Each structure stands twice: as structure tokens, then as C-alpha cells.
Amino acid sequence: MNTPADGTAEHAHTTAWIASVLRSRIAAGELTPGSKLSEEPLCAALGVSRNTLRQAFTTLAGESIVTRIPNRGVFVASPGVEEVREIYRVRRMIEPAAVLWGELTPGVLDELEAIVQRAQQAKDSGSVPDMADANQALHGAVVALTGSASLQELMDRVLAEMRLVFYTMASAPDFHSHYVDRNVMLVKHLRAGERQEAAEGLRAYLDEAEAELLAHLGAGRDSHSGIRQQAG
Predict the structure, then answer these.
(1) pLDDT surpasses 70 at 221
(2) Are the CB atoms for 90 and 151 separated by under 8 Å?
(3) Is the alpha carbon torsion for 34, 39, 40, 42 positive or negative?
(4) A Gene Ontology molecular-function term (predicted)?
């Protein structure tokens, strides 16, 4: 029989596991913004209690990945302006640093090249979902260069939010295509040992992607206005 402490630890692990499963499904595009997360089928599929599932929902709500609507239920979130800004604040802090100081082995470089080749094939075939998948995989692999489980866990949350953001660009199918070549150049710099150039290119890439997303969300004018006021 479990002690209360053991039961609590097991419960916490189960809650974290459920949150991870749902986060992964969102990052993979299996759950889209606005989708309702119905408790009964999820409990049956995952083999957990409603209380445990609700605690996982609380975790994901704290990450802005799901939204609770009173008397209606829990839904996959639809990120807005502030969520996009926060995503890119995090990405600018960890991805260029990973490029500068992460561990690069021949095997890792081969993995990165395989991902960008997959992205190029998706671009050639016009497959937006496959370009998005490759983009997610590449940036996850970049953070994995750090060797830090904590940073990779953080990036998993960011990638789940990014997948939701990508859905806002459904009316702009070229959004992913013009970043494929940037990812190719990033990997070329890393293969050549040009870490500084890779980091600088990645920072510019992230700035441009954020600006494009904010403009698409109608925040471009406010964002630039705020920058001008701060500069003044």
C-alpha cells in the first residue's frame, strides 16, 4: 500500500505525463486552436481520473496552451499578441545561446542537415504542414544542443504554443517557405564552425518572424509605435 507521500509523488508524475502527452499532440498539430478537450474520452484514452486530468489542464492553462471557459469546458488556446511576444522573448534568449555554446558533434550536424533537407522537400512539394513540422523539429534540435533537460522541457512548451501560432498564418501559406532557406543557412554556418554568424542570423530570423506574426495579428503598428516611443 502506498504511503501518502508515495501517492502524491505518483500523482504528480501522472499529472506531468498527461500534460506532456497533450502538449506533444498540440505541438504535432493533432489538436488545433479552439478544439474542446472533453474530459470523458480523454480520461478513458489515458486511463486517468477526472481529477488528475483537471490538474494537468491547470498546468497547461498556466502555460497559455489551453483556456478554461466557465460552464463550457477546456479548449486549446488561440494565442494572441502578448503570447507571441512572450514566445519570442524566450526563443531569443535560448536559441542563439544554444548555437553559440551547445555541443556540436558530426552526428548532431547530420541530424540538423536531415531536418533541413526534409524542409526543402516539403517546400518543393508545397506542403505547409510538413514545412511546419520540419521547422519545429529543427528548433527543438537546436535547443537540444545545450544538453539541458530543463531547457528542452521549456522548449517543448514553446513549440506547443508555436504550433498554435502557426494556425493563425493559415491565410499566409508562404510564411514557412521563406524561412526554409534561412534554416538551411543556419545549418551551413554550424557545419563550417561559424557559430557567431549562425547566432546572429538566428537572432535576425527570430526578429523577422515575430514582426511578421505581429503584423498578421494586427499588432504591427502598435509594436513599432512602442519601439519609437521607447527610443525617444
Answers:
(1) no
(2) no
(3) positive
(4) DNA-binding transcription factor activity
Give the total number of structural domains in the chain. 2
112 with 212, same domain: the answer is yes
Query: What H or E segment, with its residue span, contains residue 66?
Result: strand 66-69
Residue 149: CB atoms within 10 Å: 9
Residues 113 and 71 in one domain: no
Side-chain half-sphere exposure of 74, counting CA atoms within 13 A? 21
The C-alpha cell 505581429 sits at: 214
Give the model confidence (pLDDT) of 186-211 as tens digits.
Answer: 999 999 999 999 999 999 999 999 99
* 104 and 132 together in one domain: yes
In 3D space, the residue among 170, 173, 158, 172 whose CA is nearest the CA of residue 206 turns out to be 158
Residue 232 has pLDDT above 70, yes or no: no
- Cβ–Cβ < 8 Å for 152, 172: no
* DSSP string for residues in 152-185: HHHHHHHHHHHHHHHHTTTT-TTTTHHHHHHHHH
Read off the pLDDT of residues 84-138 as tens digits, 9 standing for 90 and up: 999 999 999 999 999 999 999 999 999 999 999 999 999 999 888 889 889 999 9
Tell me whether residue 51 is exposed, middle or buried, using C-beta atoms within 10 angstroms of its C-beta: 0 to 12, 13 to 18, 19 or more: exposed
Same domain, 70 and 113: no
